[in-house]
Design brief:
Radius of gyration: 15 Å
Strand content: under 5%
Helix content: 55-70%
Strand order of the largest sheet: 1-2
CATH superfamily: dinb family like domain
CATH topology: Four Helix Bundle (Hemerythrin (Met), subunit A)
Number of domains: 1
Number of helices: 6
Distance between the termini: 39 Å
Order of helices and strands: HHHHHEEH
CATH architecture: Up-down Bundle
Length: 153
């Protein structure tokens, strides 16, 4: 499990770098052929990690419910985020994986509601959720690479 947390934290550093160094207009731009933007992908991974790991474990998530409503699976960018949302996601990108690792090591994930993802991957315990989350975040980093390339065309 330790290596999965290392991978997630490294991915989050990359996402944080995109958030901090991408021009604001490019963060929110939706290139032709895409249905979301760099910003949405970054916020989405924050929300999904919480829903998969804490939510399916029957625990309270550690983010504002408004973020969940705006960036959970099935949503699309509708407006540019507020300065508060930008600041919040920037901080949560780094802090939440640290908290999740601490909580995992403390043994707080005692129950789990089995769930099959849209990729048809069954999640039967928190370890499955953490592993799938790592995969999921990689997918969205790949989407950001594609968005970045499309924006520069």
């Amino acid at each position: 499990m330790e290596n999965l947390f290392t991978i997630i934290k490294q991915n989050r550093k990359i996402l944080h770098h995109y958030l901090k160094t991408t021009a604001e207009a490019d963060l929110y731009r939706i290139p032709k052929g895409f249905n979301n933007n760099i910003w949405w992908n970054i916020a989405h991974v924050v929300v999904t990690e919480q829903k998969l790991i804490y939510g399916l474990s029957g625990l309270s998530i550690n983010i504002d419910q408004a973020l969940v409503l705006d960036y959970q699976k099935g949503t699309f960018p509708t407006a540019n985020p507020s300065d508060n949302d930008l600041s919040s996601i920037s901080e949560l990108l780094i802090s939440l994986p640290e908290k999740t690792e601490l909580d995992y090591n403390a043994g707080i994930f005692n129950s789990f509601k089995p769930y099959t993802t849209s990729a048809k991957v069954p999640l039967n315990n928190v370890e499955d959720a953490i592993a799938f989350n790592t995969f999921h975040e990689g997918i969205h980093l790949g989407a950001i690479f594609a968005l970045e390339k499309a924006i520069k065309l």
